[in-house]
Design a protein that fits this description.
Length: about 250
């Protein structure tokens, strides 16, 4: 196992703490996250501040992320697109399940596929990047609706027409809200022929560093291929969601 540089590790931890805070923090507030004295934390903060990774307000003396972080963030955005960054997780799911694997975002009342991995053989349907599907009737969409901010979720639910795509589509508002609650509790959603007859989908949330769900990852395929293995596939998709979340900076500690 590689030897860690403790001071660097602590400095990175400070950046993580500041990045996840919704307000500037004092030396005392930052020190609460560590089991070392304030003077050591102060020296770390001073080093980060001198190198513009942290900014200290001259009046309040509180700390926040500095401009160097913004600079690096911009460089990261130019070098790496999210769908490319998370591609290995999609490939892993596709290899393990041999089913179409997708990464999606919410756009209005629809989900939009921003990355797709398809198995080399046994493809049952072609799905491409840019494909749009109704959010309320698909596993990918239900995850994104379930984990949306409450005010955003309410607006979404008010705007959904609850089109009856198949006999399995949930169209009752109260039943749908209860369904969303179970998705939050279980951290996955299943679309059991709710959008297309004969097709089953499984999806899990992808959290960003602030604990918000921006993406969903999932699989879709023929019912006779997925249903016999659904428990195993749910685990695979959930693990992929957790891995993507970790890559985006979400901490589950």
């Amino acid at each position: 196992m590689a030897q860690l540089i403790q001071s660097l590790e602590r400095g990175l931890r400070i950046l993580e703490i500041l990045g996840k805070s919704d307000k500037p923090l004092s030396l005392g507030e930052i020190a609460q996250f560590f089991d070392i004295d304030k003077s050591s934390i102060f020296r770390l903060l001073s080093t980060l501040t001198q190198n513009n990774f942290v900014y200290q307000d001259a009046e309040t003396k509180k700390y926040m992320l500095g401009f160097k972080i913004m600079e690096l963030s911009g460089a990261f955005g130019e070098q790496t697109k999210i769908e490319t960054f998370l591609r290995p997780a999609l490939k892993s799911v596709c290899d393990k399940t041999r089913q179409n694997t997708h990464l999606a975002i919410l756009h209005g009342q629809e989900v939009v596929f921003i990355a797709v991995e398809q198995p080399r053989n046994g493809i049952s349907m072609h799905i491409s990047v840019g494909t749009r599907e109704p959010a309320h009737a698909t596993a990918l969409g239900k995850v994104l609706i379930a984990f949306a901010q409450k005010n955003e979720q309410e607006l979404l639910l008010q705007g959904i027409s609850f089109t009856h795509y198949t006999p399995h589509t949930i169209v009752d508002g109260d039943e749908y809200r209860n369904h969303l609650t179970s998705i939050i509790q279980n951290k996955y959603a299943v679309d059991d022929e709710e959008y297309r007859l004969g097709v089953v989908c499984i999806a899990a949330p992808v959290f960003n560093h602030r604990g918000e769900v921006e993406y969903s990852i999932g699989i879709s395929g023929p019912k006779d291929q997925i249903s016999p293995h659904i428990a195993d596939y749910i685990t695979v998709v959930q693990d992929a969601g957790a891995e993507c979340s970790r890559l985006l900076g979400m901490s589950f500690r």
